[in-house]
Amino acid sequence: SLRTGAAEQGRGRKRKQGRRPGRARRTDWPPAGRVWRDSRPQAAAMVLVLCMGDLHIPYRAADLPEKFKALLVPGKIQHALVTGDLCSRDVYDYLKGVCGDLHVAKGEFDDPACGYPENKVISVGSLRLGVIHGHQIVPWGDADALASVQRQLGCDILVSGHSHQFRTRVCDGRLLVDPGSATGAPSSLRTGGAMVNPSFVLMDVEGERATVYVYELVDGEVKVEKTLYDKAAAAAAE
User: Fold this and answer.
1) Fewer CB within 10 A of the terminal residue: the chain, N end or C end?
2) In angstroms, what CA-CA distances link 98 with 27, 85, 156, 180, 198?
């Protein structure tokens, strides 16, 4: 038919014409000089924060457990908060090698010449994390007294030590973390001078959420437990 013939002639002309002279196919995209922005929502980056303290090396413990050292791989952890009582410059240097962004609060038995501050607050994701030793708290380990310090520092998560015993609590919508003693050093405060199970904490922070992993050495084996903290959910629950 005429309609069919005209269509075939039109297709033939298109095939003959091809691309316009001098017009090359683009192989670069986005064009040079322009920035391509992905408008899709991006997930918050996960950040690892090491929390430990009350090592008391070499006076109450010889060293960190070897199984803990095997877990603390240099370059994998972005921040470290230490509750103090390192009692040795060698321990500080070791932890600095594990994580360059190291923050240590002055413990009861740390040499004042080390210059550690009484407290430190850092921002990670959308959370503010603070660290103190804990011997300043009266009564020691009291949740209300710790929460008062937490409000003064303006932090969402407060890491404190001195008890040598791992514990997490939510108070007024904010998280309190005691990582325990990383060496299992004895404490007359809680254990009557007996060694305790060594423990430390690794926090995985993403936005307003933190997954708190406690690593505890029990009968020669590392046990891991986790606690979830969501700032918005915890505030709504109070």
Assistant:
1) N
2) 45, 18, 25, 19, 18
**Whole-angstrom distance, CA of residue 214 vs CA of residue 228:** 11
- Token pair in block for residue 4: 């069919």
Is pLDDT at 22 greater than 60 in this prediction?
no
Q: Which pLDDT band holds residue 33 (cuts at 50, 70, 90)?
A: very low
> Do 173 and 234 touch, CB atoms closer than 8 A?
yes
- Alpha-carbon Rg for the chain, nearest whole angstrom, is 28
What confidence tier does 6 reach under pLDDT thresholds 50, 70, 90?
Answer: very low
- 60-84 b/e (C-beta count within 10 Å ≥ 16 → b): bbeebbeebeeebeeeebbbbbbbb
Has this prediction a pTM greater than 0.85?
no
In DSSP notation, 10-71 reads HHHHHHHH-SPTT-PPP--SSPTT------SPPPPPPEEEEEE----TTTT-SS--HHHHHH
pLDDT one-digit tens code per residue, 127-138: 999 999 999 888
Output the DSSP codes for 92-151.
HHHHHHH-SSEEE---TTS-GGG---SEEEEEETTEEEEEE-STTSSSTT-HHHHHHHHH
What residue has token string 């325990």? 180
